[in-house]
C-alpha cells in the first residue's frame, strides 16, 4: 500500500493536483491566459470561443486555483458547464486542498454546488463501471490463458506418460525411479502463472506488516505509524453497534476487529451469534490473547472477507470496517450483503469515504446511497458531531479524518 494509507479511501486520483502545462508555445500560453481572464470575468461567449479555439484550460493561477475554481467563485454556471464539457476535471484541489465544491459552498453558490456534485457522481459512477468492466475482461482473458495452458499441460503430460511407458519397457527399475522423482519436483508452469497474475490484494502490504497496539489500548498503528484504528471513534462504534443490533439476542456479523470497539459494544446485546472476520495475523493473535474466541456466541473467521465469504450465514445485522481498501472493495462487499442479511435487517459501514474533504465525502455518500438503493436497500445517513481535537493525531503519521460531522449509514434491506 502507498504511504497514503487510509480507511476506506477514495482513489488517490481524486486528491492530487495536476502539474502546470509544460512545453507550451508563447501563443498557447497567451491563449490560455486569455481564457483564464475571460473565466475570471465571467465572459461566457469569450470562454466558449477560446475553448473552441483550443485554448488550454489546465493552467493554474495563484494558490493553485484552476479555471473551474474561478468559474465557481464568479458564480457562472454556464462557464462551469463549458469547462467540464471540454474535459476540465471536476475534482482538482487548490494549494489549501480546497475542491471546487468547497468553493461553491464558501462563495454561496448552491446551484453550482449541486451541479458539481451531480457531475462528480456521474463521472465516478462511470469510472467505476469502466474499471469493473476492464477487470472482468482481464479476468476472463486470464481464465482463457489458464485453460489453454492447462490443456497444453494435459497434452504434455499425456506425451510424457507415453514416453515414460516406452522408457519403462526399455530401462531398469532404478532409472524409472529417477524419472518419477523429476516429475514430482516440477511445479506445473500453469500454477506459477496463476499466482503471478491473480488480481492484486489492495492492502497486501498492510496485511504483511507488523502492527502495534499502544499500551493504553487506545490505538492500533501500522509499521509506519498510520492510524489503523483510534480510540476517538468509540462514540461512532457505540452507535454503529446499536444500529445493527437494536435489540438483544440477534445474529450479527462484524468485518474488521481493529481495537474491538464495535465488537465489545455488540457483546452488550448478548447476540445469539456474533461472527467476526479479521484478516491481519497480529490482530487475530491479539483477539485470541484477549479470549475473544471464548466469548458467548463468538465465531472468528480468520482471513480476508473476500476469502472467507463462503462461510457466512444469515444475520440480522452486519457492520463493515476494514483498512486500506478502496470504494470498489466496499462496493464488492455491498454486493454480497443481501445474500447474508435477513429481510428488514440493518447493514452499516464505517463511513470514511473521502473523509479529508467535505465535497468528495458528499460525492461518495451520494454514490454509495445510489448503488446501495439499486441493490435493494433503503439508505439514510444519521448525522453525528465529531468535534475532533488536533491533538488526537499526535504521534500518528497522517490524519485520516478532518471533517466535523460523521454521516452514519443505516441501510435497511427491503423485502422483495
Ligand atoms: C479500522 S479497523 C476496525 C475497527 C473496528 N471497527 C473497531 O471497532 O475497533 C480495520 C480492521 O480490518 C482488518 N482488515 C483489513 N482488511 C481486511 C479484510 N479484507 N478482511 C477482513 N479484515 C480486514 C484490519 O486488520 C483491522 O483489524
UniProtKB/TrEMBL annotation:
Its main location: cytoplasm. It is found in: Cytoplasm; Nucleus. It comes from the Eukaryota. The keyword Transcription does not apply. It holds the Pfam family Ank_2. One of its GO terms (cellular component) is cytoplasm. This is Arginine N-methyltransferase 2.
